[in-house]
Write a structure and sequence with these properties.
With 476 residues, the chain is an alpha+beta fold. Helices cover 42% and strands 17% of the residues. The protein has 2 domains: 260 residues, Alpha-Beta Complex (set domain protein methyltransferase, domain 1), CATH 3.90.1410.10; 189 residues, set domain protein methyltransferase, domain 2. It binds S-adenosylmethionine (SAM). This is SET domain-containing protein.
Length: 476
């Protein structure tokens, strides 16, 4: 659907009308970052200054939160109908529906009849049409992600967004206005839904009282690890942007906030469409799949409860560490002491229970790593686990280095640059992790219990251990 027009020069009047107050700062174009906030004069907040220096105040009524959505539903019967038909599953989903309404109300194609506009209706047109997040990339750009940890995440997200949009269309068939826009005329397509999701993901923030919300004007502030400002929600429910203590911003200098310095490079690119080399932790997350020949695979996945992941992260000394509690479940079986049982309650309901040596770990499946420590064969278990993790990392590294660049189609220079940075960070982390795991494996292979166990297993198992680092098997 065509977007409405609302330029930066219209913003001051909108702010006056809606009680948004900028103090000594203004919105400007920032090279390579879209809009951002800059100082109109030198801003100083001394360390010992007990008063916060507030640069922006946004009234509670403008905050787009779960409460804000409900307020609008009270004012607009049409929106309430839409929410009742297709919403109330999650705060995010309801906010996306609110944004969908604003997209329609603010479009030059809109011919009226859908209830009152809100301050957001006009403000929506100021928001970018193109967000650099991967869900909005072209096929050629997406192909650059091949082998990275982001490839499965983006593909899964696009599948979810398509399903959400199809669901939305199915749920509004009884609402003629929306049915026409979404299904008959197809004026609104899945591309619009992807845009709304990207806007939400890249511009929402967690407020202490209102929860995950979008705050107009505060969402124009860019990120830096050396952030000069921070936001807060005061007792009146207003959102404030304050200069940090001990900070000075020169006239014309940009005011920034910290979007979160514990995010991995892939998460940063996924949520915001850029990687800040200074602010990302050296980490990556890979989805885990059960071992092909594990007869208990489905039960273990069910008992684990969440989708299993392998996380690699470098500490401050640059040493990589891995966490993947599910790999312990992958490598343990009945004969080791892992039991999965379906228990029937007196009311007839059935539950899957998981035990390690008769200790019930159903509620805390991730504690498996700790509870096996006291077992006499725990070094043998560690060897299996290390072998599996090592194989996963080796395979990922091969995928990453084997992926050939697909040169067809348009690829923006900034996208190519971001992906190439991501690839080099992930390659480095995988290589380092591999080295550490190989050392761990060699140490385990020198352990007396492991040696004894492998000898007892006979020559074939022994040969296996000698080539463990390259082995596809899991020793189980
Ligand atoms: C909350 S918005 C900030 C305002 C935004 N620049 C605009 O024009 O509306 C977040 C988006 O700003 C851009 N951005 C913020 N900080 C950035 C940075 N340090 N480097 C590059 N882009 C940045 C990214 O496109 C990100 O998705």
């Amino acid at each position: 659907m065509r977007r409405g027009l609302f330029s930066l020069s219209d913003l001051p009047a909108w702010c006056v009308l809606n009680d948004v107050n900028f103090v000594d700062v203004k919105v400007a174009n920032i090279s390579g970052r879209g809009y951002g906030l800059i100082a109109e004069k030198e801003l100083v907040n001394e360390n010992d200054n007990s008063e916060s220096l507030t640069l922006l105040t946004v009234p509670k009524e403008l905050i787009l939160s779960a409460e804000g959505v409900e307020e609008y539903a009270k004012e607009s019967k049409d929106f309430r109908q839409l929410l009742d038909a297709a919403g109330r599953q999650s705060n995010r989903g309801d906010i996306l529906l609110f944004l969908l309404v604003q997209l329609v109300l603010s479009s030059p194609d809109y011919e009226g009849g859908q209830g009152p506009s809100t301050p957001w209706t006009q403000y929506f047109s100021l928001l970018p049409e193109v967000i650099p997040t991967p869900t909005m990339w072209s096929e050629s750009e997406l192909s650059l992600l091949r082998g990275t940890s982001l490839e499965p995440a983006v593909s899964a997200k696009l599948t979810t967004l398509t399903k959400e949009f199809d669901n939305l269309r199915a749920k509004v068939t009884e609402l003629p206005f929306w049915n026409e826009l979404l299904s008959i005329d197809e004026t609104i397509t899945v591309r619009d839904w992807i845009l709304l999701d990207a806007l939400y993901r890249s511009r929402s923030l967690g407020l202490p009282k209102s929860g995950e919300s979008m705050v107009p004007c505060l969402d124009l502030v860019n990120h830096s690890i050396q952030a000069t400002a921070y936001f807060e929600e005061n007792y009146k429910g207003e959102v404030l942007l304050n200069l940090r203590k001990g900070n000075t911003v020169a006239r014309g200098g940009e005011i920034t906030i910290d979007y979160g310095h514990d995010k991995s490079p892939a998460e940063m690119l996924f949520s915001y469409g850029f990687i800040d080399p200074d602010s990302t932790t050296r980490s990556l997350v890979l989805p885990l799949e059960s071992l092909d020949d594990d007869p208990l695979a489905a039960a273990k996945l069910h008992a684990f409860g969440t989708s299993p992941k392998l996380r690699l992260e470098e500490d401050e000394r640059g040493i990589p560490h891995w966490t993947a509690p599910f790999v312990y479940l992958m490598c343990l079986n009945e004969e080791d002491g892992l039991k999965l049982r379906v228990l029937q309650e007196t009311d007839g309901s059935r539950h899957l229970k998981m035990f390690w040596q008769d200790v019930d770990i159903t509620d805390e499946p991730s504690t498996i790593r700790d509870v096996i420590q006291s077992h006499e064969l725990h070094q043998v278990f560690e060897l299996r686990v290390t072998t599996v993790v090592l194989n996963i990392i080796q395979q990922k590294l091969d995928e990453l280095t084997d992926a050939k660049e697909h040169r067809q189609g348009l690829v923006r220079a900034e996208t190519r640059q971001a992906v190439s940075y991501l690839r080099s960070l992930e390659t480095g982390l995988l290589e380092k992790s591999l080295q550490v795991l190989e050392e761990q494996m060699n140490q385990l292979l020198r352990d007396e219990t492991v040696i004894g166990y492998l000898q007892a297993m006979g020559p074939s198992e022994n040969d296996l251990s000698a080539e463990a680092a390259n082995d596809e098997d899991d020793f189980s």
